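ZP: hey, is the glycine complex queued? I don't see it on the tracker
AM: it wasn't, my bad. submitting now with these inputs:
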Amino acid sequence: MWGMIATWRMALEGVSKGAAMLEQGGDAGDAAEAAVREVEDFPYYKSVGYGGLPNEDMEVELDAAYMDGDTLDVGAVAAIRDYANPVSIARRLSREPVNSVLTGEGAERFAHKEGFERKNMLTDRAKAFYWKRKKEEETELKPYKGHDTVGVVCLDQRGKMTAATSTSGLFMKKKGRVGDSPMVGSGFYADSKVGGATATGLGEDLMKGCVSYEIVRLMKEGLHPQEACERAVGLLDRELKERRGKAGDLSVIAMNNKGEWGAATNIQGFSFVVSAEGEASKVYLAMAGEDGRCTCEEASNQWIEDYVRTRMAPVEGQG
Ligand code: GLY
């Protein structure tokens, strides 16, 4: 048995690639890395890797992480510039006994020493979005709508589970800002004895609930991944609204070591991708209901095609 789940429709091609590897008996670490790299390399996704939107200084600073659920090894990079595949650097770091989470210049120095591919990650398209936003003269930092982190959870035929994430974080963020994606327990968690989870949405709020660890903890108590996701999102959403008056976007996915999966969100229209033994990769759309409850429906082919079409539409001011 094997399985894979990932955040957002943008992961579809990557999941299909990873699923083919798992089907042939491949390793959950290799499949997770391959799936995330596919998204990092696609220039039209504005929130991950090449083509990701820049910070307020017009620099693309990327966050990524990897966790091995057999050994509980964790590796992460934060605010790294000019490297093509942050997830691979994070995975390499996960094998280090110490210094396994590196930021900024330290992460870049490590990547250079290890021979990772250097690349200018700022595209002309991302620059056009930057200038367009500048013209709008927004002074307040607002999470950019319609983008987010790619996060995957994999289960291979030997029962190994992994989790990986990658993101350019918030558009127009402050230099050095780090979101939830490279933070173990918040953006991701994997334990092969139980399952794995990853999160996407407003990092500053996801961190407040250590939501990925919470989901794995709930699955360890015996909850189905769907129940665990709904309960974790419902609780965090409620606490944030009670104590702070509002909650940012919170969306999560999870899979347990039996290949059962779940997803939850507090927004209307969180897409995710699932692949499992005997089934082609499918895109689902989750809709928030009351108290963390969600409905998940398979997305239509039209919706799937429109998603890519809108991401590839010309940007005003480009060229
Ligand atoms: N969830 C991604 C971020 O806030 O950076």
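AM: back. Residues 84 and 117 are 6 Å apart (CA to CA).
ZP: great, adding it to the tracker
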